[in-house]
Write a structure and sequence with these properties.
heterodimer; A: about 280 residues; alpha/beta; 7-stranded parallel β-sheet; 3-stranded antiparallel β-sheet; 8 helices; 14 strands; about 30% helix; about 25% strand; elongated; B: about 350 residues; 5-stranded parallel β-sheet; 11 helices; 16 strands; binds flavin-adenine dinucleotide; binds adenosine monophosphate
Chain lengths: ~280, ~350
């Protein structure tokens, strides 16, 4: 009976994100939410382990009330229950504070866990820091970027590609892994409980007070890092626009940039005339 | 302690040395930053040099002793070194503990770590233990008017860049993407101090055990490493027209990339896919033909130094991020470009 916890984050569906044409920035508030792809891989890994070993899966997320959607989705995919951490005072947390908050909630709602599974990274913040920091917070061994996992009793054997080294690692439970997406990612599993997701899905909602967290050390207040500006590199770019007949355009391109193009390809592209 | 100079530490990540020179790049950047704060640059090295290390499958690394000299030659004023048989393979918990203890003792102002797979797991653990902030995978570092480290981090696949500071806690920490900064040339007469840090006697065994490790055969990274990439999208209109890109790429000595619709339509193989689901590229020049510039594609092109985009729609997102935006029919322009190049390359 494996007691598993999967950490899920709801991220904006980037392909649908509208851009502000004037500033070139993303209009995040208009975005639809979806389950972060690597978190989905983590959930799939948990489902496969449960299929082999039996056990129980708790999906947990910290986010605005709307993040409950990913918990329902997780339950539809087969998770047994969900925990939603939602509180205005938790907002704006950096990775260290996020891992602190998640750890306290896991200790509360999933005491005696065997394995915590996170995604390797999220597509909106892309830090890949929450998993390793959560392992530190929970004081359990942890391994990041796993693309294969097997269980032998209380020992997990994991495989990963790390900086061009194919590693096989082992640790004893309880422990934490972060799961990579991509070529080596775990296989898909069939959907389990679409019905369950809507009929009395078991979702526990917790606030900072429920967890007895000091509001001074969570959310934006507790975070060591400060974002001082956010810019879009594309908005600032002033470019050269060429129009007209292809022949003329290509001539202009070489007139202005023959050095640049020639430099990259290691050739002299100047015409005799130009020399 | 206070008499000491402010120190900028760079973690000596030597495991993949020849492919990945991020440590040297960071030493170089740290030197610039150190000038601005009147500080010194220190490398921190954990490892072990044994004969086995040299004969081992991992022996393509420079010898361990070599690393210390190498870092000094590339800009370190000081190298902290812990050398012990237990450190002969990278090990996360052990390294994190060594770094934690050393940092608590020496109190560096900043710690910079290469955003390798190891670095990106190691850094958050160290930051957590030191109770400080950390910015991931930075693409720029600077010092602001208040002497703080400004950490430039991409988000949404680089379509946004956030500037982040750690105002109060110390050290200020960042992982930095390889290939952003230029290393300083090797200077063999440069000297530096080597501080040997003994291995603690009370070090617990790592709870994660390395059962086996093999160096992967160097994967072919033609597209990823290409200096010139010619990328085509749905706007080329047909497989036949797309095929022209191969001719262009050949003339330019470059590689061909493709967007997802092109791969789905089988105008190009999956190995050519550029984007979130495919490869990251960083050419000196990127030619983009008939590509709208969806974020899942452009996220992988942000490191292109110079972009020439061809699209019949001047408002396509790809045109906005290009250095030269050519409003034209993609395949016609490709053909003209081929003609002109043939004339010029002799
Ligand atoms: C989870 C996810 C992952 C994805 N991963 C990737 C990925 O890794 N890589 C990737 O590429 N995509 C990826 N996509 C798809 C991506 O969102 C876009 O749909 C795709 O990049 C668009 O490809 P395109 O630019 O070739 O086609 P389109 O968007 O159809 O653009 C065609 C362009 O060609 C122009 N055009 C048309 N006719 C001509 C002409 N005659 N001459 C010149 N220009 C012309 C049009 O103006 C238009 O701008 C992903 C999507 C999702 C949801
Ligand atoms: N707000 C959150 N709630 C639950 N899990 C999270 C949250 N943020 C990050 N995680 C977990 O940490 C992983 C890595 O996230 P990141 O460090 O942001 O790249 C994600 O895939 C999740 O498993």
């Amino acid at each position: 009976m494996l007691k598993m916890v999967v950490c899920l984050k709801q991220v904006p569906m980037v392909s649908e994100l509208p851009w502000d044409p004037r500033t070139g920035t993303l209009q995040r508030d208009l975005a639809e939410g979806m389950m972060n792809p690597a978190c989905r891989s983590a959930l799939e890994a948990a489902l496969r382990l449960r299929a082999g070993e039996g056990g129980e899966i708790t999906a947990i997320t910290m986010g605005p009330p709307m993040a409950e959607e990913v918990l329902r989705e997780a339950i539809a995919l087969g998770a047994d229950r969900g925990v939603l951490l939602t509180d205005r005072r938790m907002a704006g947390a950096d990775t260290s504070v996020t891992s602190y908050t998640l750890a306290r909630a896991i200790e509360r709602a999933c005491a005696g866990f065997d394995l915590v599974l996170c995604g390797f990274s999220t597509i909106d913040s892309e830090t890949a820091q929450v998993g390793p920091q959560l392992a530190e917070e929970l004081a359990v061994p942890g391994v990041a970027g796993i693309d294969g996992i097997e269980l032998f009793g209380r020992t997990v054997r994991m495989r990963r590609l790390s900086d061009n080294f194919l590693e096989t690692l082992e640790m004893d439970l309880p422990g934490l892994i972060t799961v990579a997406t991509g070529e080596n990612a775990l296989q898909h599993v069939p959907l389990g409980g679409l019905q369950a997701a809507f009929d009395g899905a078991k979702i526990l909602t917790l606030s900072a007070d429920d967890l007895g967290l000091d509001p001074e050390i969570i959310g934006v207040k507790g975070s060591a890092t400060r974002i001082i500006s956010v810019t879009s590199p594309t908005a600032a770019k002033k470019n050269l626009v060429l129009t007209g007949a292809p022949k003329r355009i290509v001539e202009q391109l070489f007139e202005r940039f023959d050095d640049k193009i020639g430099g990259a390809i290691g050739r002299d592209l100047k015409t005799e005339k130009a020399k | 302690m206070s008499a000491n100079k402010k120190a900028i530490w760079v973690f000596g990540d030597y495991r993949n040395y020849f492919q990945n020179r991020v440590t040297l790049q960071l030493l170089s950047r740290a030197k610039d930053l150190a000038k601005k704060i009147g500080g010194e640059v220190c490398a921190v090295v954990f490892g072990h040099w044994t004969d086995e290390w040299v004969d081992d499958a991992l022996s393509h690394n420079p010898t361990f002793c070599g690393v210390v000299k190498e870092y000094i030659a590339h800009g370190a004023d000081k190298v902290y070194l812990t050398d012990h048989p237990r450190l002969s393979a990278y090990s996360m918990e052990t390294y994190a503990l060594l770094m934690e203890r050393l940092a608590k003792r020496e109190k560096p102002e900043m710690i910079l770590i290469g955003a390798t797979a190891f670095g990106r797991e190691f850094a958050p653990r160290v930051a957590k233990r030191l109770g400080t902030g950390l910015t991931a995978d930075c693409i720029g570092l600077d010092i602001n008017g208040e002497g703080l480290l400004v950490q430039m981090a991409p988000s949404f696949g680089g379509n946004l860049v956030a500037e982040i500071v750690t105002p109060e806690r110390r050290p200020q920490m960042a992982t930095v993407r390889p290939g952003i900064f230029q290393e300083i040339p090797h200077d063999s007469v440069r000297t530096g101090e080597v501080v040997r840090v003994p291995m603690p006697v009370d070090l617990p065994a790592d709870r994660v055990r390395l059962v086996r490790v093999e160096r992967c055969p160097q994967r072919e990274q033609k597209l990823e490493d290409a200096k010139v990439v010619v990328c085509g999208g749905r706007g080329l209109g047909s497989r036949k027209k797309f095929a022209k890109l191969f001719e262009l790429a050949e003339l330019l000595g470059g590689e061909v990339g493709a967007t997802r619709p092109v791969v789905y339509a089988d105008w190009a193989g999956h190995e050519a896919l550029v984007g979130q689901a495919g490869k990251q590229i960083r050419p000196q020049i990127l030619f983009s033909f008939g590509i709208s510039g969806a974020i899942q594609h452009t996220a992988a092109c942000n490191n292109a130094r110079f972009i020439v985009a061809v699209n019949k729609n001047p408002n396509a997102a790809m045109m906005k991020r290009a250095d030269v935006a050519i409003v034209a029919d993609a395949s016609q322009l490709c053909a003209t470009l081929i003609q002109e190049l043939k004339k010029r390359i002799r």
